[in-house]
Amino acid sequence: MLKRLSPLLTPDLLYVLRAMGHGDEIAIVDANYPADSAGPQVVRLDGVAATDIVDAVLSVMPLDDFVPEAAWHMQPAEGASPDQPIFDDYRKLVEKHEGGKIKLSSIERFAFYERANRAYVMVASGERRLYGNIILKKGVIRPDE
Amino acid sequence: MLKRLSPLLTPDLLYVLRAMGHGDEIAIVDANYPADSAGPQVVRLDGVAATDIVDAVLSVMPLDDFVPEAAWHMQPAEGASPDQPIFDDYRKLVEKHEGGKIKLSSIERFAFYERANRAYVMVASGERRLYGNIILKKGVIRPDE
């Protein structure tokens, strides 16, 4: 482990987060998501809630404030409640780390799959809640930070 | 780059620091050191002073306080001044990050080579000052940290 860093930031996860640049996207997906066949490189964190991973990722990775949206959940399929409880957890985590500067947005389900499958990296979580998927777009660290 | 982390903590360096466990050692060596042929895996930071790398490493990696010594410089060859200016920089960096809990020690030159060449990882720096080599032993993060 390392000082000041969440133990969920594993060697593989730290590596990809640090390798990502401005505008690169990370998809953190639930335990049902077909991550391994999706295309992007996969970092596995089986057994760990996606919300805990998002908390760890946002503790070191800034979100992109050059664009109107930088964090998206997946919109549920027809018939399911459009506001799943996990979305509220995600909203609070974005608020916690970005302080109201960036809001959680959403993307229609099939557009979400398409976008997530073009991400720089996909984190396969152990999240059991349905629709527990999120895409985060990396921002910049300014020279004085 | 990542929030709260030195830009010198590259993807490769972060990976190995996070992968290291209690008691594993990292050798940060100067630009004359035969790092690539030494044996351990090598992370390259050509062009960067070893002192800057030590500062970045100690900002996230605790030193081992289970043992009497956890940081060593190389003792100069006969005829050279036994206290090179870079040793004082290393002393100050250990003090800065460990607050007097751990002191910089030294190892005879050939014993240093032997120990460095058994390290978990070697960082090849761009350090031009002679005897600019240091070995650091990783400590633990306690449950309440």
Helices and strands, with pairings:
Two copies of one chain form a homodimer.
Chain A: H1 11-19, E1 25-29, E2 41-45, H2 50-60, E3 71-74, H3 85-98, E4 105-107, H4 109-116, E5 121-125, E6 134-137
Parallel strand pairs in A: 1-5, 2-5, 3-4
Antiparallel strand pairs in A: 1-6, 3-6
Helix pairs in contact in A: 2-3
Short description:
The structure is a homodimer of 145-residue chains. Chain A has 145 residues and is of the alpha/beta class.
Describe the structure.
The structure is a homodimer of 145-residue chains. Chain A has 145 residues and is α/β, with parallel strands linked by helices. Chain A is built from 4 helices and 6 strands. In chain A, helix 3 links the parallel strand 3 and strand 4 (105-107).
CATH class of chain A: Alpha Beta
Distance between the termini of chain A: 24 Å
* Oligomer kind: homodimer
Outline the low-pLDDT stretches of chain A. none
Q: How many discrete structural domains of chain A? A: 1
Biggest interface, which chains?
A-B, 23 and 23 residues
Contiguous helical run count of chain A: 4
List SSEs of chain A in N-to-C order: HEEHEHEHEE
Overall body shape of chain A: globular
Class of secondary structure makeup of chain A: alpha/beta
